[in-house]
Amino acid sequence: xxxxxxxxxxxxxxxxxxxxxxxxxxxxxxxxxxxxxxxxxxxxxxxxxxxxxxxxxxxxxxxxxxxxxxxxxxxxxxxxxxxxxxxxxxxxxxxxxxxxxxxxxxxxxxxxxxxxxxxxxxxxxxxxxxxxxxxxxxxxxxxxxxxxxxxxxxxxxxxxxxxxxxxxxxxxxxxxxxxxxxxxxxxxxxxxxxxxxxxxxxxxxxxxxxxxxxxxxxxxxxxxxxxxxxxxxxxxxxxxxxxxxxxxxxxxxxxxxxxxxxxxxxxxxxxxxxxxxxxxxxxxxxxxxxxxxxxxxxxxxxxxxxxxxxxxxxxxxxxxxxxxxxxxxxxxxxxxxxxxxxxxxxxxxxxxxxxxxxxxxxxxxxxxxxxxxxxxxxxxxxxxxxxxxxxxxxxxxxxxxxxxxxxxxxxxxxxxxxxxxxxxxxxxxxxxxxxxxxxxxxxxxxxxxxxxxxxxxxxxxxxxxxxxxxxxxxxxxxxxxxxxxxxxxxxxxxxxxxxxxxxxxxxxxxxxxxxxxxxxxxxxxxxxxxxxxxxxxxxxxxxxxxxxxxxxxxxxxxxxxxxxxxxxxxxxxxxxxxxxxxxxxxxxxxxxxxxxxxxxxxxxxxxxxxxxxxxxxxxxxxxxxxxxxxxxxxxxxxxx
Amino acid sequence: xxxxxxxxxxxxxxxxxxxxxxxxxxxxxxxxxxxxxxxxxxxxxxxxxxxxxxxxxxxxxxxxxxxxxxxxxxxxxxxxxxxxxxxxxxxxxxxxxxxxxxxxxxxxxxxxxxxxxxxxxxxxxxxxxxxxxxxxxxxxxxxxxxxxxxxxxxxxxxxxxxxxxxxxxxxxxxxxxxxxxxxxxxxxxxxxxxxxxxxxxxxxxxxxxxxxxxxxxxxxxxxxxxxxxxxxxxxxxxxxxxxxxxxxxxxxxxxxxxxxxxxxxxxxxxxxxxxxxxxxxxxxxxxxxxxxxxxxxxxxxxxxxxxxxxxxxxxxxxxxxxxxxxxxxxxxxxxxxxxxxxxxxxxxxxxxxxxxxxxxxxxxxxxxxxxxxxxxxxxxxxxxxxxxxxxxxxxxxxxxxxxxxxxxxxxxxxxxxxxxxxxxxxxxxxxxxxxxxxxxxxxxxxxxxxxxxxxxxxxxxxxxxxxxxxxxxxxxxxxxxxxxxxxxxxxxxxxxxxxxxxxxxxxxxxxxxxxxxxxxxxxxxxxxxxxxxxxxxxxxxxxxxxxxxxxxxxxxxxxxxxxxxxxxxxxxxxxxxxxxxxxxxxxxxxxxxxxxxxxxxxxxxxxxxxxxxxxxxxxxxxxxxxxxxxxxxxxxxxxxxxxxxxxxxxxxxxxxxxxxxxxxxxxxxxxxxxxxxxxxxxxxxxxxxxxxxxxxxxxxxxxxxxxxxxxxxxxxxxxxxxxxxxxxxxxxxxxxxxxxxxxxxxxxxxxxxxxxxxxxxxxxxxxxxxxxxxxxxxxxxxxxxxxxxxxxxxxxxxxxxxxxxxxxxxxxxxxxxxxxxxxxxxxxxxxxxxxxxxxxxxxxxxxxxxxxxxxxx
Lengths: 640, 857
Prior knowledge:
heterodimer; B: alpha+beta; five-stranded antiparallel beta sheet; four-stranded mixed beta sheet; 17 strands
């Protein structure tokens, strides 16, 4: 598949090509959608057409026709089954508390007004959820032929945070998608995706057949070419649709409300993610069960604009964040600017103040309490077991940790053991809680890559600019375990702070690393006679550790040590240890040599990866090549 | 797993690095010895390794069920090294419980159980108070089939941290397997809490329901199922889950179900609401419906497109019209598609006829049979319906011939196509019979109608007669066929044949053979006046028609008039050959060999087929003793057609005549061989007749008699031979009815036969019968009967000389007259006259030659 960096470049190229030409982009997306459908349908139609041809031929031939009719019948049925499988896809309906017709009459009235205004088809149900979000979901009853059924999903926390006008703007935005039939396009794209998945599942299930393997190989080649190109267009189209829906919402309500809603959602999301949920989950330290008053806590959190130091930073992040190619929604700033409003003006007002009357109170009216109760209860039930588990783990960590005073807290622990402890704490209580242990790890082992990564992340969360440098350093180390997560964290950080070019540079760096990583793994997965071996280059102390390990393996008579010359990640050495239990072992030699391999892998420690070969094993040719070098012999068990 | 059938298939050979351990087989669940080793997979032929298919690492081959895991050795070794190295690397960098578990998991996965045990021991010491690592190790041991070792660790872990989910799940599973379901449910109770599905897999609960149900604890099983249903409402539509719930509800006789109502919908076909069996069922139903519909269409198509084969053996294009459809031109053979039912087939063109044919068949037989409906236009084609037998020693095919204009067979395996030379018949004793249909088109080669007639006659004389009648109606000028039919004519068919001949007397140009055959019918020639008047009438209409002049002269009782009419015919049409033929015949009868030769040549020059007149020429050459010329001609004829039996016999005859009997056999035998090869041995009677004559020429009368025995076609010859042999009673008994031409001399020959025996009474009696017979033939023979009825006189020989007759017939006549006379001198002169006529060696030469002896007596 196409690497992420190349995909980003493709998206940008297409974006440039269709800049200010939304209709052209739509046509292009449709073309690619139809191309994909065309291939899937062509294959199915070929199957049915072939079956039909055989079937008809069979009806016209006396005698042998019976066989052809049966064969044709089977092929047609198989083809119809494939079409049915493509068309009849199971889509689970969205879940949530269904708003009955006699509940929240004001909300129903608002929905009806907006629906009529925007010429939107009837909504099947309004569902209330505990998400901080709103959405419309469409499921076509007739598969690719459409006839959609639609739901409006409103998160009660969202309604608790915004004004009625802002909520109306959000609903109008969602209806904007429906009025422009964005949902159906999205469904078709979704279906396209599922069609290919279905096809591959069939091919996968029948891969033992040579013909299927051949077909799959061709399809994969096609998909590798097709999918990124189609997906890039569909992705950009989705973004276009967001702008269109925003414009519809602004026209239906007004631009200020639409912009205000966007700004509030962006800022409040930061508040929820960075502060609110953390404070709730911190209760796991003290409470064995989740609180029952989530909505009350949300109301309280939304009531006043936060005054913490973080609030200013969240506003900045909200303002600067650029959209990445993993999110179909454009950034808030872009969307507000598209409404002809300067986001800086909104930012000047700081974190949006709480509305005098929330949309929940206004629109849900007397039913608001019932809905809040439902949401709180639903959230509580859904997180109950997770909460209890977290509570148990926090308690366990507390039991293991000594209270207070960092430096002499873990005197006997090695850096590795301490790192293990750090991860446990961070896993349950967050990185900030684990900071003392983290600094202890780095004090004992300054080049500990994992701890360096964790420190970089921590510094970045805390808003220190050196966090970027630390993570960039981890990326440059090309570490098998930590380079990828460090790069991803850095990329997200750059995107959140509006530094699109830097984010892309990191992505390209990660793609290159991943490619080299695969090559390196391949290079390290085997040794052959034709490999070029070098002197092991170990220091005396390192060699003595190796010899100690060899000595422990009682059947090891002789051992030679070399290093494979590597092209990729040469700093991660691959040591090749050739061992033999000796010819005196007779018929037991091969068995003993085989047992030696695992034993030595467990007991011999080298500064890099170890590969053990024997003169009787699968890699005997490499063993022979190494054992020919008398200078590489490092061990010979003395005769008793 | 490798498999062999009758010693052929795949098989493991060799065991290297073998490791045995006692554990529970993960595939069959039985305690067993699990063996791991390296081996090589072979393709074996009768258990002999033939092709190596790669080295394999066999893992945990169970001593009970034999099942195991197999992986290419190189792949296994690489994975072992890479994964162990990676796990160890991780462990050394971060020696946590998780990384230790990863190392242990890798070791157990690669069957390194001793090393795993050692590593486990050290890690348990290192992480002495940790429950998680014990749970992890226990889990690995369970998966390695070591539940006892696992239990100890589970219990230790549980003691250390009773709330650790991994421990509760692992121990719970262990309790389930050991039948302690209450303890298991207690341990897994945390999974029944609301929202547990968001944190944990509820798979252990699903397992628990299975165990509870198996133990008959349906109430509890339903409780757990209700938990699952609440956690995952969509499983309420899962067919497997529903079946599972229903089993318990049925066992408890619950009237209300915990399952939600589901609506059957085609749109949910590919959801878990329906099983693959449902989908297969629907698919098969659709396929079955399609198949049934297709078969019905196929049957209807067959019904509407029945092949009606039109055979046209007439040699010219015919128009065939089915019912009111457009006429179709058929040249040789064509197939017209018709709907089943009754059809009227109209044929026009060369022939004109109409047939009604029922094209019908049973509904099922449309698939199982290949029926054949044939319209054989004019009955001209010979349909060969054959049953071919396939067996280790197959018998000859059964051949049925037909020239019926309408032909039907319910089933023919190979209609108008060659059957295969061999087919599979199953066992050695089996006989498989297939039917095949072909046809012979008489128009496809010269003489085809005769071949068709003769072929049919062998199998079915009645069919042959019908065929001949139809062919002659269409082709009155087919002289050969007329002659063959005339030869085979029976009394029964005679009236019909006469009518047929009379039908086409007006056919023009005049078919001379046709008329000659007609004139030769005794009942026709007997009515002399009518016959003469008939030809006179025709001549009146066409006075210059040479053929009619010739034919009119031919039947005249006055030989002089005959001669005159021949000359008149030549004058009317100098290119008409028949009068020359007649004159050659006349000359030959008078032993005027040179004149005969000239007329023969003139006839040939005028277009008379040389091979048909050749016998006259050769008789003349024999009369002139021009052996070399005759021999040269015969040898040339044989070089052209090595199977020409007539030429071979003539050659033999003239060789014998020259006293070269020993050379006579070879050309005849060679010709017979060649004839058999080209005719496929289909005409044995002709061969026997040839061999009989050769023997007769060589004076081997018993041999000749033997050859003619049992051959209906050779009866006339045989009768003559019997008479010569002295078997008079038998000869008389088997004698065919004397005809106008054929056999007309038999009474005379019987007279001679009895005379040769010395039975003068019988001889006289047969002489009188001969007179009566010739008298019965009418005025055409009045000169002959006049000679026979008048006592012999010195003029008799001259009168005989003037008769228009074959030389051999004259020899018979004068011999008979000689036998009848008491005048010795007269007898002598008659017998001398006989010598002049008797130049051929054919029967009854021997009988006639007996009277030389008699004379000597």
